[in-house]
Amino acid sequence: MGKEKIIHIENLNKSFNGTSVIRDLSMSLYAGENLVILGKSGSGKSVIVKCIVKLMEADSGKISVFGTEVTACSSNELSDVRSKVGYLFQEGALYDSMSVRENLLFPALRNYKTRKLGMPQLDELVRQNLDSVGLLEAIDKMPSELSGGMKKRAGLARTLMLSPDLIIYDEPTTGLDPYTSESIIHLILKVQSEYNTTSIIITHDIKCAELTGDRICVLHDGNFIAEGVFDTVKKKDDPEVRLFFK
Amino acid sequence: MNSRSPMVYKTQQFLLDIAGITSFVGLFFRNLFTRRFEGREFLNQCFRTGYQSLLLIGVTAIILGLVLTIQTRPILADLGAVSWLPNMVFVSVVTEMGPVIFALLFAGKVGSGIGAELSSMRVTDQIDAMEVSDTYPFNYLVVTRVLATTIMLPLLVFYGDALAFLGSFIGLNAYSDISFQLFYSRAFEDFFFRDIFPATIKTIFFGYFIGIISSYMGYYSDKGTEGVGRSANSAVVASSLVVFVLDLIAVQITDLLLF
Ligand SMILES: Nc1ncnc2c1ncn2[C@@H]1O[C@H](COP(=O)(O)OP(=O)(O)O)[C@@H](O)[C@H]1O
Ligand SMILES: [Mg+2]
């Protein structure tokens, strides 16, 4: 495993209307790693990753992503970082006025990495990515015609269009039946090896954490209360950690 | 800051919205001139905003012309001034009633649509998804919609004026056999450009602010499903109110400049 540091967070703080959600949190992510952030719903998991891609401003602290300090960078540098990061939202966040094909083309036609490709090449790329997530037959469907699991697959295919080096999965298995959950977990592993990406997986699903995570951080009360490989975390006595292993 | 009193809270919220809308206007012009222009989406929005309102504005306009004529004809007849009727209808519809009534209908139909659509995109993370994939949602979603309302409302008002005029002709024709040529020439007798020009400038501003305000309400919508309804609602209420405020300002300016 490469030891290049992709993300480094130092003393991140974030509060909303005086309620502190993240307190003095620090973490690092290394190339090729699958990091799982495990935490109850409302514990601030999404807040951490939104600060990483600057969908939210941190109150204080330093966040550097691919060597760029996103807490204090120009909009060009931020663009550069964002083109390297794929973000899969909880419900897939498909653009509901566009078909699956148009959803995948939307970022590709506008990003500097891909926009110079001709239409036939882009179309090929769309097919290739939809095929990777097993959704090629739904290429001309509208998002409203897709099931929850299919929306997540399509959302993943869309983030793959820009060949990200890092993919952030926000609760990839939440709201899915066990069978679909498992197929999404396998898809994450497949994408990880096929596209050679680093991943952050946010979840409260212990099975998803076990199967996808190389390293697990347990978030509680604004900070990590346990960190390590699955078996290490599993042996912790902390009652808040034990809660996940019931 | 004490925000316990609802009065204070409402005032704070109002001032925040004013500040937000002002910065939205700034963002609009910055994005308009520096970012790639989303031409296809702009045409799509023009089609949607324009086409959506054709029937509504058309029917209202014909009724407006009819009612106005049927109501004023007896009064004018008493004064022996029926021949003034086309001209009177023209002036009142073109300068005042048309722009305001059609703009209010437009705010109700298109403004609520924009508020609801953008807010549901915000709630389901679609706007965030555009932002993290390094495409500019403001440019794609807001600039195109605001330009579309700015251009389509004046065109719709022309169309509404014409139909109100037709309604008036139908109304008058029921009583007397006035020919369309005569009606037409009497209506346009003196006033033409002096009335149409300021009215058109006014509708451009109406269209622009209906677009800006509705987009603002949707774009920064609260999370949660009830946020969508609230955004659609505030889009209509706020842009209707602004139509009246702008109309008041426009009357003052036209007064100063023309008389
Ligand atoms: N935009 C926001 N405004 C106010 N509060 C927020 C906002 N985003 C998140 N929060 C609060 O931060 C806490 C953590 O939210 P989140 O990170 O979404 O939780 P989760 O761990 O389930 O992803 C929640 O209590 C939520 O109320
Ligand atoms: Mg979350």
What is the gist of this entry?
With 246 residues, chain A is of the alpha/beta class. Helix content of chain A is 36%, strand content 26%. The radius of gyration of chain A is 18 Å and the shape is globular.
Query: Averaging pLDDT over every residue of chain B, what do you get?
Result: 88
Q: How many angstroms separate the termini of chain A?
A: 32 Å
Mean pLDDT of chain A: 89
What count of structural domains of chain A? 2
Q: State the oligomer.
A: heterodimer
Strand content of chain A: 25-35%
Succession of helices and strands of chain A: EEEHEEHEHHHEHEHEEHH
Low-confidence regions of chain B:
none
CATH architecture of the largest domain in chain A: 3-Layer(aba) Sandwich
Assigned CATH superfamily of the largest domain in chain A? P-loop containing nucleotide triphosphate hydrolases
The radius of gyration computed from the alpha-carbon positions of chain A, rounded to a whole number of angstroms, is: 18 Å
Could you walk me through the main structural features you see in this protein, from its secondary elements to its overall organization?
- The complex is a heterodimer of chains A (246) and B (259).
- Chain A is an alpha/beta fold.
- Chain A folds into two domains: 148 residues, P-loop containing nucleotide triphosphate hydrolases (Rossmann fold, 3-Layer(aba) Sandwich), CATH 3.40.50; 71 residues, no CATH class.
- The longest helix of chain A is centred in the C-terminal third of the chain and has 17 residues.
- Chain A contains nine helices and ten strands.
- In chain A, 43% of the residues are buried.
- In chain A, the strands form two sheets. Chain A has a six-stranded mixed sheet, with helices on both faces. A four-stranded antiparallel sheet of chain A has the order 2-1-4-5, with helices on one face.
- Helices cover 36% and strands 26% of the residues of chain A.
- In chain A, a hairpin with a 2-residue loop joins strand 1 and strand 2.
- Chain B is mostly helical and 259 residues long.
- Chain B has one domain.
- Chain B contains eight helices and no strands.
- In chain B, helix 2 packs parallel to helix 5 and helix 3 runs antiparallel to helix 5.
- At the A-B interface, helix 2, strand 6, helix 3 and helix 5 of A face helix 4 of B.
- The complex binds adenosine-5'-diphosphate and magnesium ion.
- Adenosine-5'-diphosphate (ADP) binds next to helix 1 of chain A.
- The site of adenosine-5'-diphosphate (ADP) has 10 residues of chain A, from helix 1.
